[in-house]
Amino acid sequence: MTVEYELYLTDDHGRRKKLIRDTFFLSYTRAVSALGTCSLGLAFKPFIADFNPYFQPDWRLEIWRSPKYGTPLRREDVFMLRKFEVYTRREDSVQIIQFYGRNGIDLLNRRHIIQRATTQWTTKTDYADDMMKEIVREQMLYGSSVDEDGTQDNTRAWPNGEFSVESDKSAGPTITKSFEGKRVFDVLKDIKATSFQKYQDDPDNVKRIFFNVDPVPLSLSGNASPLGWKFVTRSGLYGIDRTNGLEFSLENENIESPTYSLSHLDEVNSVYVQGGGRGETQIIEPVTDSARVISSSWNRVEKVTSASNETDTTGLQDAGTAELEKNKPAENLPVVFLNTPGNADTPRSLYGLDWDLGDRLPINYAGKQFEAEVNIIYVSVHDDGREEVTGRNEIQNV
Question: 180 CB contacts (<8 Å, ≥6 apart)?
Fold first, then answer.
């Protein structure tokens, strides 16, 4: 099995500056609706011979990979370089420049909800995926971004034509949220979590919502970027449902370090949500999981939580449901998925072909059948070309 890579250094507009060769090391992570990171090590002197200055924030590393010989390269991800360091190895006195970067999700980290509380920009009721897109448009899209008073202002917008937002799909559940003063990335994670909670309550009719900032080719005239960014959402499943395919088990040698547990130690199944007001005027909304309460004669476990920023019953109920979801019995199956070529006795299990980020996979362990989703990928390439790939289900509840 031969794994092929192509690495390109680009400027901050995505224009390719150099095909990178002779790396000392490369590592990167891909994650579902989460920040991906990269690290790249190169010989310092040859690199600075081509570049002066040799670093600028948001230069990008574009990574292409083929999982095996004969398979076309695909773009794994693009990372904006945010840090470098130069050091000298003790064993051979070779100077190395090491770059650190983050993927497009980092753009969501760079904006806050700056408008005042209880305005149309800080309190919304909408489909979960459409709400995400509206927030992103208002806080960072050229032509739609607004200032602290809600007046259209491109000062906070990303470059015109180089950042876009996918059209609304209205695929998620309807929710109500308030989020003044919060980071955009944190708000989107909270909306995603709420969609997951509503899915747990009604899996037949509700779809979970995921989000990402994808690198996308652009075809614009003038001094424009050949590679821009696009905020997108996905509903239901981030990757592919492979539960009817290859089984992952210790016997098939395509997983390692599995541990299965079920714990009621920190369970909460009855929540009283305190809303606005004081004394007799305060709203208190009870939210209970009746099935869990009656699972034993002693199993009612209560909690009081505050949601004074919520303005209606729906918001209070959502806050209570979030607490129930957060404190439900913890059924965990952390497992590492392996990238293996297989042999006559064990099946092939190649990352990028047989499993990928966001895929739902079947697992056989501890005498039970499970389904788990790959939430994060770790890739390392050493100076001898040896590659190590593992996937994990970082969201533990199976």
Answer: 113, 115, 116, 117, 118, 122, 123
